[in-house]
Design brief:
9 strands; Arc Repressor Mutant, subunit A; Jelly Rolls
Length: 282
């Protein structure tokens, strides 16, 4: 399976921190989720990040936090967006603060208050320092990077945490779990034929209810989401592989050429052949 983007990892597993520098191809990167807290800091371009159905703009050298378990997607505006990505395990946060489950980190650029802005600027400066350490490759830089990330987390908890709303009801918890199940299922099976009935059967719903459920909570239809996942993988293979376009399309589950062409153009605002041409021109 093609990798979504090129990654350079600096693993800090003993602390439960993972620091990565991604170079991401332009375009849409479908909804997904994970248990780790995620911190994003783009270095050379902008992106739109959708978190639990709400879209915000993430500008160059601005920082954004995605909480554990939040369903999110990104849409990048440049062909090769360089971004700092930090994942932090909930275990680390629990070790540091026993009541961390009562807090939610809310650090989204569009929502920063005037009172928070000086501390937000300080956190962004710390993220830039991580980049400098990576570029210079100075001795013991991993130790220094760990220290900076812990400082970032401390600032986030101190200045950007809010008391969590009352615990989700059992119905809300069930909805979130159902969404995670269907997202995982699609990402594991997108190369195979997938129908509305497949999604409904997975969750034990009838087709009509499943259709309404998915659209309400995801903001698009189930089959639209399936096709977006397929399109994303096709785009990646057009950039990295040499197989004929028709072969790549079929291998990733698309059987309707006209639907593929229309969906690809809607998401990437270009044609598959132009993506392949850009690759050969490099």
């Amino acid at each position: 399976m093609a990798q979504p983007y090129y990654e350079v990892f600096h693993n800090m597993n003993e602390l439960g921190i993972q620091l990565a520098y991604h170079t991401i191809p332009g375009g849409y990167h479908p909804l997904h989720w994970h248990e780790e807290l995620e911190i994003l800091f783009p270095l050379n371009g902008d992106a739109a990040v959708t978190i639990d159905g709400k879209t915000c703009q993430l500008k160059r050298k601005h920082l954004l936090v995605i909480e554990s378990g939040q369903v999110h997607s990104t849409n990048t505006y440049s062909d090769n967006l360089m971004i700092v990505c930090i994942h932090v395990s909930k275990h680390l946060l629990r070790r540091s603060m026993s009541d961390i489950e009562l807090l939610t980190l809310s650090c989204i650029p569009d929502e920063i208050t005037d009172a928070q802005f000086p501390e937000y600027l300080r956190i962004c400066q710390m993220a830039m320092e991580l980049t400098r350490l990576s570029i210079e490759e100075i001795p013991a830089s991993h130790l220094e990077s760990e220290g900076i990330i812990l400082q970032i987390l401390a600032h986030l908890i101190r200045y950007f945490s809010v008391h969590s709303a009352p615990a989700l009801s059992s119905a809300d918890m069930n909805t979130r779990q159902r969404l995670k199940e269907i997202i995982t299922y699609v990402n594991d099976h997108f190369k195979s034929p997938l129908s509305l009935k497949d999604g409904a059967d997975l969750l034990g719903y009838n087709k009509e209810y499943f259709c309404r459920f998915f659209k309400k909570h995801m903001g698009l239809s189930f089959l639209q989401y399936v096709n977006e996942v397929r399109i994303t993988h096709i785009y990646q293979e057009l950039q990295t592989g040499a197989a004929p376009v028709s072969e790549i399309i079929e291998a990733n589950g698309f059987t309707n050429q006209k639907l593929f062409n229309r969906t690809f153009k809607e998401i990437y605002n270009c044609t598959p052949s132009s993506v392949r041409k850009r690759k050969t021109d490099i």
